[in-house]
Amino acid sequence: MTPKTLGADRFVPPGAGIERLEEAAETCEGCELHRDATQTVFGDGSATARIALVGEQPGDDEDRSGRPFTGPSGTLLYRALDQAGIDRGECYVTNAVKHFKFAQLQPGGRRIHKTPTRGEVNACRPWLLAELNAVKPELVVVLGATAGQSLMGPEFRISTRRGIIQDLVHDGLAESMKLMGTVHPSAVLRLRESERKEAFAQMLVDLRKAADFLETGHEKAG
Predict the structure, then answer these.
(1) Cα torsion 51, 55, 57, 62: sign
(2) Distance (Å, rounded) from C-alpha 132 to C-alpha 151?
(3) Uracil-DNA glycosylase-like domain: which residues (predicted)?
(4) Is 148 exposed, middle or buried, given 0-12, 13-18 or 19+ CB atoms closer than 10 A?
(5) Fold of 14-214
């Protein structure tokens, strides 16, 4: 039997700032994922950030620490941001889903990441929209397909839209924003070592476009 997904709407305080949203998210039961996760992993960073980076969901490290992007993916992401010339102080990082979804083959064994379902992503979307409404970033960078589809719909594909800055208009957003997609850092880490360097370089190309946009206010030609 498929677990019932209710949605986070009733847990999200309308018009709240980031601190109040984070506090409220601690008790969210908008989908079944809260049952097995250690804790809610909310966003982190400047409440007036110029750029928001949105991943899929917290991983094992993040579930334990309670902060997003504290594991190997975060290490790679922050290295890429530094090399792209994006000030971390101008960033807000979060995930489309706030609880860790995993499979555990045996009690006490390694917890293996599982991709959240569309229903789980939809259930958690009110938190992401509330974060974006509170922070009001100039640019939202979605890391991977799950984050992109959370905001742009199921047709969004990183393979065809990566590095392209486009309008982000959503009924749940108080104002329109700009959005750009690139790969999730975990996708880079999963590659063979021989392929990882090129994938990281391609990610840097995307993030440098984001840096150019923050500097000039528009996408750099060519």
Answers:
(1) negative
(2) 11
(3) 42-204
(4) buried
(5) Uracil-DNA Glycosylase, subunit E (3.40.470)
Q: Which residues contact 153 (CB under 8 A, 6 or more apart)?
A: none
Residue by residue, pLDDT tens for the chain (222 residues) are: 344 557 999 999 999 999 999 999 999 999 999 999 999 999 999 999 999 999 999 999 999 999 999 999 999 999 999 999 999 999 999 999 999 999 987 777 788 899 999 999 999 999 999 999 999 999 999 999 999 999 999 999 999 999 999 999 999 999 989 999 999 999 999 999 999 999 999 999 999 999 999 998 766 544
Q: Which residues pair with 112 in a beta bridge?
A: 103
Would you give the DSSP letter of residue 55? Answer: E
The sheet that has 51-55: what strands, in order across it? 44-45, 91-95, 51-55, 139-143, 177-182, 166-168
| C-beta of residue 101 within 8 angstroms of C-beta of residue 116 | yes
How far apart (Å, rounded) are the C-alpha atoms in residues 163 and 183?
Answer: 10
Three-class secondary structure of residue 94 per DSSP: strand
Q: Is 112 exposed, middle or buried (0-12, 13-18, 19+ CB in 10 A)?
A: exposed
